[in-house]
Design a protein that fits this description.
Distance between the termini: 74 Å
Number of strands: 6
Structural class: alpha/beta
Helix content: 25-40%
Bound molecules: zinc ion
CATH topology: Rossmann fold
Largest sheet: 4 strands, parallel
Number of domains: 1
CATH architecture: 3-Layer(aba) Sandwich
Shape: globular
Strand content: 5-15%
């Protein structure tokens, strides 16, 4: 019997490689052979940590607010969450890393980025004594298309690092236009009614909850999540993200 030189499986796998080239090297800069965050990118990410930020919303600033730890927004606005913390600003290598995770399918980035997030709040008593972590959900449709929820991947890593369980108690029940394409005023109302509590309210009632997401820009996602969790009886709602924008928002003013 003559064996075929190429099996059907070989041909198929060659085709798959052609259409979806196998990622090589660092998922952010492509350096090296191993598909993991390289040392240079790690250093660049570390260099952007520990920047001056607003004590409420967690956004960063280059300006000094001499008499208050709060950004001008937070001196007048009332957020429905208690505070938010970000590892660093939404720019440079931090922005690249988020985009590679979210849009480039580089799931292997969730571990290092989640570890950086955990490090950012490890010393904050409000965070390390929290009861549960809740990832910001995607709609079923978006989840099927992307194949994963980056917020859930990050939450699982933070969960391991801080020893706080993850509970996916929020569902996204309404598809909303992409925030990126909207003016600021539209962004703030875009998510209204988008989230719903799933499962037992007892998981949330009287608890300190940390909502985990990849990015904080206008705060509308965290605000909507916080409203639903508070309505279910959550005692405290904190936010934890990998990156946050700067004050004032870079988003176009409406
Ligand atoms: Zn790299
Ligand atoms: Zn603020």
């Amino acid at each position: 019997m003559v064996r075929p030189v190429f099996s059907l499986r070989d041909v198929w796998s060659a085709l798959v490689d052609l259409v979806f080239p196998r990622a090589r090297g660092c998922p952010v800069c492509g350096a090296g052979e191993e598909p993991e965050l390289c040392l240079a990118c790690r250093e660049a990410i570390r260099a952007l940590s520990g920047q001056r930020h607003c004590n409420w919303c967690g956004r960063f600033t280059r300006n000094l607010w001499a008499h208050t730890p709060y950004c001008p927004d937070c001196r007048t606005a009332q957020w429905p969450f208690d505070r938010c913390r970000a590892y660093g600003p939404y720019e440079g290598v931090l922005r690249d890393a988020v985009h590679r995770l979210k849009y480039g399918g580089a799931r292997e980035l969730a571990r290092p980025l989640g570890e950086f997030m955990a490090r950012a709040v490890r010393e904050h008593v409000a965070y390390y004594t929290a009861d549960i972590l809740v990832p910001v959900p995607l709609t079923e449709e978006d989840f099927m298309r992307r194949g994963f929820n980056q917020a859930a991947l990050l939450a699982n890593v933070v969960s391991r690092e801080l020893g706080i369980p993850t509970r996916a108690v929020l569902a996204k029940v309404r598809r909303t236009p992409a925030q990126a394409g909207l003016a600021r005023a539209a962004r703030l109302t875009n998510l209204s009614g988008a989230f719903a509590l799933v499962g037992d309210e007892a998981v949330v009632r009287g608890r300190a909850v940390v909502v985990v997401d990849d990015v904080f820009t206008t705060g509308s996602t965290l605000s909507e999540a916080a409203r639903v969790l508070r309505a279910a009886g959550a005692e405290r709602v904190l936010g934890l993200v990998f990156v946050a924008g700067r004050y004032p928002n870079l988003a176009p003013k409406s």
